[in-house]
Amino acid sequence: MVSVLRGLGWSVDGDRRFQMDTPLGPMSFTNIIATHDPAAPRRLVLACHYDSIHGRDQFVAATDSAVPCAMMLHLAALMTRDYLDPMKGRSEVTLQLMFLDGEEAMVRWSNEDSLYGSRHVAEELARSLHQPASADRSATSEIDRIELFMLLDLLGAAQPTIANYIPDTDRLFRRLVAAEDALRMRGLLEVPQIFHFRDSWRPFGRPSISDDHLPFMQRGVPVLHVIPYPFPSVWHTDADNATAIHGPTVTSLNRILRVFVADYLHLAGGA
Prior knowledge:
Layout: H1 2-7, E1 11-22, E2 25-35, E3 42-49, H2 62-84, E4 93-100, H3 116-127, E5 129-130, E6 140-141, E7 146-152, E8 162-163, H4 170-185, E9 195-196, H5 214-217, E10 223-226, H6 247-264
Parallel strand pairs: 3-4, 3-7, 7-10, 8-9
Antiparallel strand pairs: 1-2, 2-4, 5-6
Helix pairs in contact: 2-6, 4-6
């Protein structure tokens, strides 16, 4: 991750090491954060976790979350030179990639035993002061620079259903649906509909999914949670390996994500 993104000219902090208490005692974690244009005032963040389940050496974690990591690197490789670089220094919003450590529980999932990387970086950004270059703008925290936190998780298996789980970003979720619809009309998608906007969640309401978005959402950051629900059948099993990955679905997700990012950042021809 670090070498690929640095090779593309991104500013990469690849050694954000920190320690946190776990049920197994203090443990070290490392977040990796890459920013295309650090001078830009605001960020569109794409995030995923790159850790696997502690103590399960045979667990490959293809959907959870090797594919999301690969999708983010693939997007950077395809879009940096022709679409992101020409906007450098000219746009108020830049793309930032967060590869988070310690999403999985060390022993048993709880508020204290999970989300180590996202909890740490959200707290760190919330307490770090950002002084805008413009004299007429007041100082804010670094976390306030995030316009949207888009979390990718459990992606790669066939026939995912991804919906608008967070009401505050329904409008932005519709743009994901629109990106998929536009690609489908052009014959560029070969899989069933992936993104589904639901007007009603009766009788049970929207699902509550614990994931790396929570520490950011709790601090007021708008969140899009790109995760299938129900989860893939291979979730947390040793079958979550290369055989669980459906190539056409991954290709479709990559294309939809690139169109969404290009639209959000006002990039010409970014798909």
